[in-house]
Amino acid sequence: MWWFWRAAVPVLAAVLYANSAGHGFVLDDAAAVVRNADVAGAASWTGVFEHDFWGADVAGAASHKSYRPLTVLSFRLTHAAFGLDPTAFHVGNVALYAAVCALFHAFLARWCGRVVGSAGGFAASLLFAAHPVHVENVASVVGRADVLGLAGSLLSVHCYL
What is the pLDDT confidence band of residue 115, given thresholds at 50, 70 and 90? Predict the structure, then answer.
């Protein structure tokens, strides 16, 4: 029965955000994904490491200096597999968020198990998965940068403990 508790958190996250899959690109998605030569594959693979999140030369004056090459690489892989289908990008965000919720639950199960018990960690994980503060990061394609950042942070802390 332990598998149910482990699966409940990412399943809840996926169910809550599944409706974002039917929507298109919005706001910053156009600049960061649709019109970005690094995402479309028009630029070289090394260009991803020379450009900012929006596709501008990171050393240039017009750059925002928002350097997120792993996010751009994930967009490029999604584009290579599915083209500019917004559904694929949204499903990727939902799947990544569900994985982050599973990581968060695993972290809390280890940490809170010692402090407030596993029920407290489970409740906190459910609250994390369902909290509306995450809507923008999951429903907006460019929010993948934040979800990937949290995934890296959780993996680091999880490995440390």
Answer: low
- Are 130 and 16 in contact by the 8 Å Cβ rule? The answer is yes
Q: With contact defined as beta carbons under 8 Å apart, do 91 and 21 qualify?
A: yes
118: left (phi over 0), alpha (psi -120 to 50) or beta: alpha
Indicate the helix (H) or strand (E) that contains 132.
none
| Whole-number CA gyration radius for the chain | 17
Is residue 62 within 8 A of residue 56, CB to CB? The reply is yes
Q: What is the pLDDT of residue 46?
A: 83
Please state the pTM of the whole predicted model.
Answer: 0.89
Q: Which of 85, 97, 101, 78 is nearest to 22 (CA)?
A: 85
